[in-house]
Amino acid sequence: MESTVDEDDGTFTNISLADDTVDGESAVLYTKQENELSIMNCDIDGDMENQVEMEEKTRLINQVLELQHTLEDLSARVDAVKEENLKLKSENQVLGQYIENLMSASSVFQTTDTKSKRK
Q1: Of 46, 55, 62, 111, which sits most exposed with the smallest number of CB within 10 A?
Q2: 12: which strand partners?
Q3: Separation of alpha carbons 69 and 57, rounded Å
């Protein structure tokens, strides 16, 4: 197919070497306006694609932000649980030492020497 530009009116003329027909009519000549309309249709399609892409990006950004907030909440919860764990370990050590002291002071838990009782 051969394309030329008519310098006088700025329109394009396509000359087909094959038998190009559209709906039984020859589709040999296309004006600059028809080409611009086709380009505008592509721009509209492109704008719609861009809009869809922007909506998808916005959705993904919102999802990332939500996940970041969830991660922050979970990190804070983990820190709180660690502090509680340390506090409970300390309390357990104190209680364990207290129980040991009670057992050593009580005669019920004293070891008996069997040799000294026989004599």
Answers
A1: 111
A2: 5
A3: 18
pTM: 0.45
51 by Cβ neighbours in 10 Å (0-12 / 13-18 / 19+) ranks as exposed
Please state the φ and ψ torsions of residue 4, each to the nearest 5 degrees: -135, 155
Q: What is the pLDDT of residues 52-109, one digit of tens each?
A: 999 999 999 999 999 999 999 999 999 999 999 999 999 999 999 999 999 888 877 7
| Residue carrying structure tokens 């983990």 | 78
Distance CA 114, CA 119 (A): 9
Dihedral of alpha carbons 18, 24, 26, 29, sign: negative
Torsion of CA 85, 91, 92, 93, to 10 degrees: 110
